[in-house]
Every structure is written in structure tokens, then in C-alpha cells.
Records
---
Amino acid sequence: MSENNSQTDPKDARGESSGGLWGGRFSSGPSPELEALSRSVQFDWRLAPYDLLQTKAHASILAAAGLLDSDEFAQVNEAIDQLGRDVASGDAQADLADEDVHSALERILVERLGPLGGKLRAGRSRNDQIATDLRLYLRVQARNIAQVVTGLQTALVQQAATYADAPAPGYTHLQRAQPVSFGHELAKHVHAFSRDLSRLQNWDERTSVSPLGSGALSGSALPLDPESVAEQLGFAAAANNSIDAVSDRDFVAEFLFVTAMIGVHLSRLGEEVCLWASKEFAWATLHDSWSTGSSIMPQKKNPDIAELARGKSGRLIGDLTAVLTMLKGLPFAYNRDLQEDKEPAFDAVDTLLVLIPAVTGMIATLEFDTDKMAEAAPDGHALATEIADWLVARQVPFRQAHEIAGACVKLADENDVQLWDLSDEQLASVSNELTSEVREVLSVQGALANRTTRGGTGPAQVRNQVTQAMEGVSEFAAWGIQAPIPNAPDWLQY
Ligand code: ARG
């Protein structure tokens, strides 16, 4: 901070440290230990463009209220745009004497504008500023996350279409249960991610409320215009309760629930890829560019992306837990504890934006051994349900049909043969309802083709499902490239 400024701004009278926002009633500066603890600028600087954006909107209101004359407003506006460009290029930086992003930007504006820069704090507090910045930032990042998630969904849909006709064993309890279309298996993940994206859109509607104008906690005696600021920043409304507006972090917790849920979905997908790529299953081959080797075992090809997907779900859940725990029992209104909301939120965003593109590449390049999967599909008497359903179609009560099919399994096991190898005599020995015609349903292709109900695994159904799912994905992708902030200045890079 220059000498010149410390003479012109009484808030700076206490000297070099603290960012100069609150010196007036103190006779000594903060201890270095306090400064080190208190400082958030090293991580909240990423909010600088959003903070400048709201300063620009705020300045327009100060001008409309006559608190900045037209000449001052023009100067301020120009300085904000220039600073926005300098932040984007890296020419303007925070330094370690700055406490947080707000104090850093005010310092630079005062350096550039002189005392005029100090007018922009009127009617605002860092409490409503930070709540506004974080909402703006997360609304933008929600869309960036939607873009990478829809990229992954597209890869899954394409693979699902490729393998719609490929039979594979389907599992319950990780035991072979009934044959399924492998495309069906892949497509299920698309639906899980679509729920996440719908959660994000929902969240976005709730988060479209501007806290600016709430001041420290009680609103402002100055003639501000929160509705107009809200509109300029792309929010649907201004907050109805200033105390709630500055202390509410539901939007952070809820955002982190969605990112944790995405993490859990990625982890379940990752676990499946690990299984499929194992020698025990040997269904999937990982592409060389999307797998890793071992430093000691030359033969190894490891599914590290899938494992990291599984592992990183832990930190995403941790981010949510950290924020919920921080909020629990917090009294109204702003408390400094709330500063702990940002690192988990940033971590969740960064984690997903680096993880999902890698998972996408891995999925898009996976190759599956359809012969191997088809061979395994009927194994473990996975067609036993077909016998029961065949009997039900002949009016046998399912309870009895289940017993009969079970007896067939037992007999096949005792003779070490497959169900379709049972002779007519053997079938008849189990039940006189069983004729040789039952063998017609004892094929994997038949079992799959019969599952024509909505959402079933019949290949025709799977193809329909995939087409429909892709329509939903395209809508989410369109939302993902939508700009949440209207008429954003060129320096605001999403
Ligand atoms: N750095 C603070 C945060 O992230 C900004 C708000 C500070 N407000 C205050 N009254 N000290 O929460």
C-alpha cells in the first residue's frame, strides 16, 4: 500500500497489513500469526472476476442513487474493466499482504483510482459480497460440470449402442443372475448421470437469488436497488431476508451433495471397469493411452483412471461432509467459519473437471470381448427363470413354477450338464408340465429378445432407450453451454 493512499484513506492508518479494510478502531496491527490464519486470498483469488462483476453492478446503482457522479462512474467503470482484463491476463495479482479477494481488489482499485476507489464499498459488506461471488462462481461451474458429464454420457451412449446386441451375464449379489444386453449394462450409467444433471439444474434455480444489498446482515440505509443488481448479475431475484442471505450456505452444501453423488456414480462405474478389465473377467481391454503400466511388473496394464474415479469419490464426499459439519450449529448471521466453505467447493469443481474427461476417454476406447461375454451369459444356470416364466404362461402358479425350475437346476448340477442338456425324460421326471418345447426358451438370444417391456434388456428396447437417453443428454449439454450471466464483459472467462 502506498504512503499516498494511507494518507487519503483513514482505514489504512494502521499500516501495511490486513488489506486495510478495518483499521480505524485498532491501535496495533494484527499479529503475523493471525494474518496467516485469516488469509484466504491464496485460494479465493479465483473469485476475483465475479467480485469485479458485482462491483460493476454495484457502481451502477451508486451512480443511479447519485453517490457517484457521471464522471466518477465513467472512471470507475473503466478501472473495473481494465482490472478485469489484468486479472484475466495475470497482470494484476493479489499479494500476501491482502487478506482476501475483496481487500485485494479494493487495494488495487484505490491504487489506480485514488480515494474514488474507496467509494465502492458504500452499502456493501464482504459478507454479502462473498455470498454473491460464490453463487456466481458455482452457477458457472455447474454448467462446466454439466459439459464434462454430458461428454461422458455421450461416450457411454455410443458404447451402449455398439453393444446393444451383445449378451452378457447380468449380476445380483455379484453372482450371475440373468443374461442381459451388455449395452443395457453400459446405458444404466447414463441414467444415473442424467439424474445428477437434473439435480444441478434444480439447484441452479434455487441458487438464482442475489444476496447483494444485504450488507453485513441488515440491508442498507443507502438507496440501493437489490433487484436491479440481481438482474444485472443474472439472478432471478434478490434475497428476501438479509440475515439469511449472508449466512445461508445451503447452496454450497447442496452443490457438494450433487458433486459427491456424481463422484459415487463415477466410483461405481470405475469399479465395474476394474472388474471387467481383470483377468478373472477378461471382458474388457483398456486402450494403451488410457491405462498405465507397472514400474516393476512389465506385463501389467492397470486401470488407474477407473481406480482414481473410485478413490476420488472419497474426497468428494469429504468436501460435502466438511461443509455440512462447518454449518452445523452455526449461529446467525455471518461467522468467520463460513470462510471454510470455499476450499471444499473449489476442490469438488477441480476434481470433477480433471477426472471426468479422463474417465470419458477410458470409456470411449474400451473394447469388449463379445464372445467371452456371450459364452458366460447362460452360465450358472442363468436361464432358470425362463423355465419358470414358460410354465407361468401355461397357467402354472409362479410359486410352483419356481420350485420346478429349481428342481431342474438341481438335476442339471447333479448330472454336471446345462439346463438345455436335460433329456425329455429328465424334464418329465421333474414335472409332467415340462415338455421338450421348454428348450426353445433356453437360449440367451431368446431370453433377451423376450424382454420387451419398457426398460427391459431386450436389444430393441435397449436401442430405444439409448436414443431417448441421448435426447436428454443433448438438452443437458445445451444447458451446459448457456451463459448464466447476461452481457458478461469480455474479461469474464468461464
Ligand atoms: N474472506 C471472507 C470469507 O470468505 C469474506 C467475508 C469476511 N467477512 C468478515 N466479516 N470478516 O468468508
Note: The first strand starts at residue 167 and ends at 172.
---
Amino acid sequence: MKDTPEILYIVVPCYNEEEVLGETSSRLKAKMSALISEGRISDKSRVLFVDDGSKDKTWEIISGLNSSDKLFAGVKLSRNKGHQNALLAGLMTAREKADVTISMDADLQDDIDAIDKFLDKYDEGCEIVYGVRSSRAKDTAFKRGTANMFYNFMRLLGVDIINNHADYRLISRRALEALSEYKEVNIFLRGLVKQLGFKSDIVYYERNERFAGQSKYPLKKMLSFAFDGITSFSVKPIRMVTVVGFLVFLFSLGFIIYAIVQGILGNSQAGWSSLFCSIWFLSGIQIMAIGIVGEYIGKIYTEVKARPKYIIEKYINTEDTE
Ligand code: UDP
Ligand code: MG
């Protein structure tokens, strides 16, 4: 245990979460109050909600919570920028105030009681603690299947990523400082945080069902998330194209021999089959190669532009007002 209790910020990205915020905030308040009275964390600790451009009453609820209790702080993004950017916005806001942060979802799927274990690991000197789901029994079969596919595919591509770890994790201020050095625009925090290094550990927890409301990750967002993860961390796809190109080249050699033999035997219209097949195969390969090269060029483009990852419209209770 440290002499003066550490300041803990719990960062919760919220997108249209009006149905769950009441329950989430009261459970987090109970947990935080207990930790504060045990002297484990400072009374300057906060629950920091990040409103990711919600269209419902999310921001009103956050401001309401703040007026009734200074434990609750908020940040509002100017528009919906997606879970990863919202989370990053929250973490970077917390970085200036907190000794340690824990990020979690708003929907109470992440077990709040795991926070104690996170802090134990932090006291043992871990800079990063990953929350890992002990089972996915409560997820839908579809979610489970696609998630497994995603993790396996990522590993196949050589991306260093922790299985069944979402974004429930503890990050110390030091690790956050390091994270802030990554200037890239395409944010895939699970991969980035893993790249930071530092002493880290895993805490297992039971993943619950969403407390209320619908998943804010429709298939489209999930796919773009997976795609971002892959293209931000692996250049293997471009190598695969080279391999495919080589295989097609070998195939076409065999095909030329076949075509010549058929020509000699007088079984084909001269030139037709070779021409037909080469056009189709080469066009396919070319299009694929152009597509993938284009993907990387697209990435270079956005990196070079270095757009702001988020724009904060308002602050409450973060002392950065105006
Ligand atoms: N979220 C967000 N912006 C988005 C989509 C989601 O901030 O564009 C938040 C959401 O409010 C929740 C977390 O990200 O706190 C995880 O989303 P969700 O629970 O819907 O995902 P799932 O658990 O279904 O994968
Ligand atoms: Mg969820």
C-alpha cells in the first residue's frame, strides 16, 4: 500500500446509454465510496463518463449526475467518433489528473468487483492490468463465433493481442504518457496498449449480459473495428498478395504447357483458352493487389494528415473549464 492513496479515474465511454447510466453510476458510486473509505484510493478519484456524441439523453444524465455528486465527471465529444476514440479521449483527459485509470463499458458487462483485483495488481507494481473474460457463455453465439474468428485471424497475421480481452483494463499514468506518444489516427487500443510493454498482468472476470439497451456495435462497426485492427498492425496481407501472385505465375506456366499440347493436338481454337484464362486470373490478381496497396496508401494518407482524433466540445468537473 502506498502512503497517500492514489487518484483513480474510471473512464466510461457512452454512446446512447441513457437506459443503463442510472444503474451503472449507482454501482460505480458504491464501489468508489467503499474504496475511498478503505483508504485504497484518494477522495479526488472520479468516474469520468465520455459522451461519444450520443443522440439521446446521455449527456443530460451525465451533467445531472455531476450536479448531485462531484464523484462524477464528464467529457462530451462534438460528434460520434466510435468507442476507441471516445475511450482515448477519456484516458487522455484523465491522464492529467489521475495516478491510475480503469476503462470499462457503460453497460455493466464488465464485472465491477474486478476493480479490487486490478488495484491489487497495481499495488504490486503493474502499470497495465488486462481484464480477460473467463467465459463467453453469456454472449450470443454469433458474437462468440465472430470474436473467436477475429482473435485467431489476428494471431495468424502476427498481431500481438490478448485473447478475450476487450477494453476493461487498468493503465497507470506512466503507461498513459507512453500511449500519448502514439500519434497515429487509426486507433486500435488493444493492440497499442499491448505494444507499450511495462509490467502487466491479467485479471479474469465473468462477463455479464448487457444490463439494458442494445449493443452499440452493429455488424458494420464490428467489421470496421476488426479491419482497423488488422490494417493498423499487420503488413502480412500485402505479403499474401505477393504469394498469391507467385502461385498464379506458377499455375500459368502449367497452363501454357497444357494450351500448347491442346493446340498441337488440334483440340482448341488457337489462343482462345489461354487468352481467356490469363485475362481473368491476371485481372483478379491485379484488382486485389491494387485494392490492398490502396488500403495502405489510404492509411499513409490519414497518418500524414494527422487529423485530431477527437474534438471535445465541453468539459465538466475536470478543472479545465474554458
Ligand atoms: N460505444 C461508444 N461509441 C460507439 C459505440 C459504442 O462509446 O460508437 C461504447 C458503448 O456505450 C459501451 C462500449 O462502447 O460503453 C461498448 O459498446 P457495446 O456494449 O455496445 O459493445 P458490445 O459489448 O456489444 O461489444
Ligand atoms: Mg457491451
Note: The chain has a mean pLDDT of 84.
